[in-house]
Amino acid sequence: MHKNQYHMGANQSPVPLYQQVKNYIESRIQEGTFRPDERIPSENELVALLGISRMTINRALRELTADGKLVRTQGVGTFVARPKAQSALVDIKSIAQEIRERGGRHSCRVFLLREETAEPDMAAAMGLDQGARVFHSILVHRDGDVAMQLAERFVNPKLAPDYLKQDFTRITPAEYLLAVAPVSEAEHVIEAVLPDDQARQLLAIGKYEPCLVLYRKIWAGNCLATSNRFVYPGSRYRIGGRFSPATVTPDPATIG
User: Fold this and answer.
1) CATH code at 85-243
2) How many beta carbons lie within 10 A of that of residue 69, not counting itself?
3) Counting CB atoms within 10 angstroms of each CB, which of 6, 16, 34, 227 has the fewest?
4) What is the pLDDT of residues 158-210, one digit of tens each?
5) pTM of the model
6) Alpha carbons 16 and 157: distance in angstroms, whole number
7) What's the CATH class of domain 3-80?
């Protein structure tokens, strides 16, 4: 790159210099010059390249880091952050499908897959007798070598009797369950939390890494089919959705 091509120090633009630096870096990210996980030029290199003060460069880098566009590692450098994956809030589909649609490589590790006694309220919701057994699974889904989701499920054995026989390294629970127990109703609740010990260990995240937790209940007919808890590292995932007012009746209390 030629220094004079990008020199900002003497320009007369009304846009503040730190914002011009941010725009410059963001444009290089968008066009692929600066790629995810790659180191960008250092502060000193940007000073020489753009012809503005290190203080201004530092402010731009700090704001881009706060925006989630960059990751700064002391003593190593500043790197382009990986784009956050997005999960649909309303759609009920496999996380493997989501990862593949983004061009990623899905894999899964099974940490728990067993039968156990249902809690009384869950047994009642599933139409089971008190003391009945349910299926319980804990899996971690990955994109490449990065843990993206901790998935915990309690499954109604009346609706998915062969759940424990599945190889969930080859088929996801969602794919199997959607095939044997088509969804008639779903409930979603989302919380922002700090990870518990289990989530920290299985997702390989720090003690203070914010997480999104999606609680999802699925009904098939009049019976509760599954009760699910999905934990996502906040730095790696976002949850979004789009709906039509013609098909969704909003609660007036939730509209600002």
Assistant:
1) 3.40.1410.10
2) 17
3) 16
4) 999 999 999 999 999 988 998 888 888 888 888 999 999 999 999 999 999 99
5) 0.61
6) 62
7) mainly alpha
